TrEMBL record:
It comes from Ferirhizobium litorale. Coiled coil: none annotated. This is ABC transporter permease. Keywords: Cell membrane, Membrane, Transmembrane, Transmembrane helix, Transport. PROSITE patterns: ABC_TM1. It is a multi-pass membrane protein. Belongs to the binding-protein-dependent transport system permease family. The chain crosses the membrane at residues 9-27, 101-122, 134-157, 169-190, 237-261, 281-303. Residues 95-300 form the ABC transmembrane type-1 domain. One of its GO terms (cellular component) is plasma membrane. It is found in: Cell membrane. It comes from the Bacteria. SUPFAM superfamilies: MetI-like. Its main location: membrane.
Length: 316
């Protein structure tokens, strides 16, 4: 098990290095001169050359990558062309909103989908099963940003229960902050809950048809005990896999919802950097997204190895 874990960690490190090379190379290929973007098209040639030298743009690409990589290890992601502040501070500030929002959306998705999927599988072809199927189809079909607009119209405009958008900052207290994140979290959670409901139902149905569950029932164990004690632990492997994918999607794919609710999250920062052609910020944000995806998938893989001993023997 230790050797397998070391191999997985080595693979994780190599993947992160490869991703960093790919990100830096692709960003360098984008059209446009960052120095010209920062100074404007009317800048003098000598001023432009001086700024390019200050930014290190006159150096070869491999040397610039090495300097950038060395900065990553020291926590220096460069300075934003647009805001004129260190990019690391911008990213950390935006992550302090995006990560809690994604975590809240995942919790809501699990609280809705897992009980619904398990109950639908336990009562196959019953009323709850059909209701769960309808819920999954509707929630998957409705775009998150459109659902967000509907939630704003109902709960913020008509009822006045929550703010329509914006974020007060964590210094305002947990209650106002979670009040501001409630509607965006629901808008993100419902489509994911639809997917997770289907996966949970299918996984539980597959396990319920296995011989060991029928044997447990034949020994006199009740249906509920067989479901929760024997079927659920074995059905959690695909559910956890989907949860890992959903979390990375929520972190990296919340751009539209954050813009709908005017939330200063990492997705909104990525959109602003793209519009303003702030290459340094774009590199940092894409790198953070990639690292989150890789690390979460690594954690999910470890969880699968713990839950399913057969995967340890196959990977050995």
């Amino acid at each position: 098990m230790v050797a397998l874990l070391l191999r997985r960690i080595a693979s994780l490190i190599l993947t992160l290095v490869a991703v960093s090379v790919l990100i830096y190379g692709i960003m360098d290929l984008l059209p446009g001169d960052p120095a010209a973007i920062a100074l404007g098209t009317s800048a003098a040639a000598d001023t432009l050359a001086a700024l390019r030298q200050e930014m290190g743009l006159d150096q070869p690409l491999p040397l610039r990558y090495v300097h950038w990589l060395a900065g990553l290890f020291s926590g220096d992601l460069g300075s934003s062309y647009t805001y004129g502040v260190p990019v690391a501070g911008l990213v950390v500030e935006r992550l302090s909103l995006t990560l809690p929002l994604a975590a809240l959306a995942i919790v809501l998705s699990v609280l809705i989908a897992v009980p619904l999927g398990v109950t639908a599988a336990a009562r196959r072809n019953g009323f709850i099963d059909h209701a769960a199927s309808i819920f999954a189809q509707i929630s998957i079909a409705v775009p998150g940003f459109w659902l967000g607009l509907l939630l704003i119209m109902l709960f913020a405009v008509e009822l006045g229960w929550t703010p329509a958008g914006g974020f007060p900052g964590w210094q305002a207290g947990l209650l106002p902050c979670f009040g501001a994140l409630a509607l965006p979290a629901v808008a993100l959670a419902l489509p994911q809950a639809g997917v997770l409901t289907r996966v949970t139902r299918a996984a539980v149905l597959d396990v319920l048809s296995e011989d060991f569950v029928r044997t447990a029932r034949a020994k006199g164990i009740s249906r509920q005990v067989a479901l929760w004690r024997h079927a659920m632990p074995n059905a959690m492997v695909p559910v956890i896999t989907i949860l890992g994918l959903q979390f990375t999607f929520l972190v990296a794919g919340a751009v539209l919802v954050e813009n709908v609710f005017n939330l200063p999250g990492l997705g909104r920062l990525a959109y602003q950097a793209l519009v303003q052609r702030d290459i340094v910020v774009m590199q940092a944000v894409i790198l953070v997204f990639s690292v989150l995806v890789i690390v979460v998938n690594f954690i999910v893989e470890l969880a699968q190895l713990v839950l399913d001993p057969r995967m340890r023997s196959d990977a050995a």
